[in-house]
Structures are given as structure tokens and as C-alpha cells.
Amino acid sequence: MTVLFPITLTPPEYPGDIVSLLPFTPLGIDLMTDKNLTSLARKLYDVKELISREELVLNLSRRQHGPRQAVVEAVTRRQELSKLNSYLNRLHTADVAHIMEGLPIDQRLHIWELQRAERGGELLLELSDAVLESIVQETADSSLSEALCQLDADDLSYLSEFIPEAILAERLAALPDDEQNWVNTTLRYNSEQVGSHISRDMVLAKIDETIDDILQRLRNSSELPDHTDLIFVTTRQGDYTGYITTQTLLIHPPSSQIADHIQTNLIHFAPDDDAVKTALAFERYDLISAPVVNERGRLLGRLTVDVVMDILRNDSTEDALNSAGLKGEEDLFAPIWDSAKNRWVWLTLSLLTAFLASRVIGLFEQTIVKLVALAALMPIVAAIGGNTGNQTTTLVVRALALEQINRNNLNHLIRKELGLSLLNGIFWGGIVGLFAYIVYGDLELAQVITLAMMLTLLLAAIFGLSIPLSLYYLKRDPALGSSVLVTALTDSIGFFIFLGLATLFLL
């Protein structure tokens, strides 16, 4: 029997000697070299290895008994935590948030506790909604309040729906009155409206000022707000009148009047506008920032491209999850029960439609028994039909999001998709029919499956059009379970068409 640690080390030498006695080096690389900081996957791997190393070293230290065991364990833990924290401190906050999302909950909380005091507030802003909720739930009120103290009014407004009301109220009470009023103003709007995403951090100018007045004010400020490409111009009462560009400040004489250079052709938004549609307008017009003006013409704040990117990312993620039948964003490492509840609704619907497809097949048991080749060909009909329906659904959902579909062009779109599905049905149905004839040598079977493919693809296109359009006109998300419904209906009716035609013409 081999003894791994036959000697007792003194406390000062112990932590370092334990590492030297490890049977392998977990990383096998120098973590502190820049070449290892080139990808998120690399960073996530390194952090997981550092955590594993920390756990391994601590376990080994606990196995060594001595008169100062508690001191040894404390020193060892402090050294390993220092290595992990030093590595994390070199990363951008967004990268640390990404790493937290890729770790199991216990390791995620470990990273959070290490980073909370330094930049906990920034991390909360970068985390996905599902992971943010889990962090808030697992963090003590006092620790959460400490992290929120690192944030300004705009950031508190962004996090308001995730923070317990008592903690949010406590934090707001510590802010100046004008910042409290700002947060309360943004809280009037939900996350789907522009008003909940605006910032008041911007450069303003009065219409009766000169360029030199603005330059002097900028020189006296501590920093320029991010994404400052425009200076918004208002009256003395705060009414929005237009903007000037930062380029204007540089190329015109300081004595020039703002009024001589003001532009009014920039699109502006209202606080109750749809956030996703506004974000798409940013993309369409290549905007960096844009003013938000209320119904009385008063400038409330601005919307910036970084916020818009978050809106678009969240919307695309939500659409992708909804189309697969998931009720909103799901934490990758959420508890099993929570994940199960998130998936049960559409799994239940899928099961019901599977029962329907099963009963459709059951109606034609005698036909299948007499012609076994039908069982081998049924999956082909279902696969091509479901794929066709999902292609149409994806196209329609995207077009609805981009506001490309209206009453004037809807009929044209329907004719185009039905014509396309008919063409695909003839072409691919012919290929499947040829395959069936080559394999089974039955011309009538080949003709039946060709006709079945044509009709199934036609119905798949109809479902692909009607389901997302119906959800849209019912004021629901067009992506909500569309692919699940289209696939289920196409399978059931495709089986019915194929087996029904086989019963009529082959028996």
C-alpha cells in the first residue's frame, strides 16, 4: 500500500508543499499569460479548473492532522481564493457574468461572493434574467443592498423588477430626491416599453447657448457619457427642439450659436413605444443614441445602442425559447423541479398531439398490416411536412417582428407560400415516389406517396402561415409554441392523408 503523504509539514510550509505533492497540475498552463485570455470558453475552463484545484487542495489539507490544523486550513483557503480572485479581477465584468452563467449554482455563488464587494452591482447588470433571479434569491438582504450601493439611478431602474421591494425602497431612500423621482418615473413603464430603458445620462444644451458654453461645461465635467454622438438641445423650459453632433463642436467656431447648427431630422421616441420595435428602428437607421420625448414635447432622456443591443438579444432569445415551447428564459443549471415546470406546459400539449397522431395511425391498422411498406414510408411524410411548416413559420414570425406583413401584402404572401409548397410537393414528392418504386417495385404505392407529399406540404404551409398570424392578431407572441403546434398538426394530418389515400387506392 502506497502512502501519499507520509510526513507532517509545519504550517508555514504546508500550503505550498501540498500543491507540490499533488499527483498532477490541474491546469497544466500559466493562467496569468494573455494568450489564455482569448475566448470565453477558455476563461470558463480556467475558472472551473481553479475551483477544482481549490477544492482538491482544501480536501488534502483536511487530511493532514497537526496541532495547528485550523490555521493551516485558513491559510490554504486564503491562498487558493486569492489565486481565483486575481484571475477573475483580470476579466471584464461581462466575461465574469458569462462564466457565472456556465457554472453550477454552488460554484456560481462562490464566484459571486468573491466578486460581490468589488463589482457586485456591475455583475447584476450583466447577468441573464434567470441567473440574476437565482443570485438575488440566494443572497442575504444586507449583502444585496451592499452591491446595489454601487449602482446609480439608471441601473437601479433596470434591476427594479428583480430586487425585493423592501431592499429597493431602502436603496432609493438613500438617493437624492431628483434621482428618486427619476427611478419612480421609469418604474411607470414595463420592460416592453421604451420608458423603462431610457437614461438621463446625456449632454444637454440650451437653444440660446454658444458652442463655447457647451465646451466649457464638458471640460468641467468628470467624464463624457458613453455613446455620446449627439448633444440634445432644449428650451429653457426643457422642451426638446433638436440636436447637434459632436462633430459640430469641433469644426465650428466657439462663438457660434447653437441655434445656427441645430438639426431636427433625427427620429425620436415616446416612453410608451414598444421597446423591440424601437430597437429595430435603431438597427434600421444605424443610430447610436436617440432622444425620448413625452407627449408634451419634454425631453425625458435618451436611448443608447448598448441598451438596444440588450433588448434585441433578449427578444431573440425569448423567441427562440418560445418557439421550442419553453416559458421564458431558463437557467442552464436551475433546480430540476424548476426546469421541469418550465417545460411541462408544451410537453403536455406535445403529448396530447402525439396521442392524436397515434389514434390517426390506429384508424388504419388493417391497412398497415396488409401493406407493411406504409410503416416504413410514414416517417418520411412526417419529417418533410414538419420541416416545411417550420420553415414557413420561421419566415412569418421574423416578418411580423420586422413589421413587413400588413393587410396589403398578406394575400400575396399566402399565394407565394402556397405556390412554393405546391412546387416543393411535386418535386420532393416525386423523388420520394421514385424511391418507393425502386425499393418496393409498386407503381401505385409510388403514386400514392407522391400525392400524399403534395397535400401534406400544402397543409404544412397553411399551418405555418395561420398559427403565427393567429397568435399575432390575438395579441400574443407569434413565436409562442408555433413550431410545436405546426409539427404536431402536420404529423397527424400527414399520417391521415397518407394512410387514407393508401386505403382508398391500394386495398
Order of helices and strands: HHHHHHHHHHEHEEHHEEHHHHHHH
What's the overall geometry? flat
Number of helices: 20
Biggest sheet statistics? 3 strands, mixed
* Mean pLDDT value: 83
Please give the domain count.
Answer: 3
Radius of gyration: 31 Å
Query: How much helical structure, as a percent, in the residues?
Result: 55-70%
How many E-type strands? 5
| Uncertain ranges | 1-37
What is the strand content?
A: under 5%
Distance between the termini: 76 Å
Structural class: mainly alpha
Strand order of the largest sheet: 1-2-3
What does this structure look like?
- The protein has 507 residues and is mainly alpha-helical.
- It folds into three domains: 183 residues, no CATH class; 120 residues, CBS-domain; 171 residues, SLC41 divalent cation transporters, integral membrane domain (Tetracycline Repressor, domain 2).
- The protein is built from 20 helices and five strands.
- It has a three-stranded mixed β-sheet. A two-stranded antiparallel ribbon has the order 4-5.
- The chain is flat.
Task: Provide a quick synopsis of the model.
The protein has about 500 residues and is mostly helical. The protein is built from 20 helices and five strands.
Topology overview:
Layout: H1 14-21, H2 40-62, H3 69-89, H4 93-101, H5 105-126, H6 129-138, H7 141-148, H8 153-159, H9 165-173, H10 177-186, E1 204-206, H11 211-220, E2 230-234, E3 240-245, H12 246-251, H13 275-285, E4 289-293, E5 299-304, H14 305-323, H15 336-362, H16 365-370, H17 373-401, H18 407-440, H19 443-473, H20 482-506
Parallel strand pairs: 1-2
Antiparallel strand pairs: 2-3, 4-5
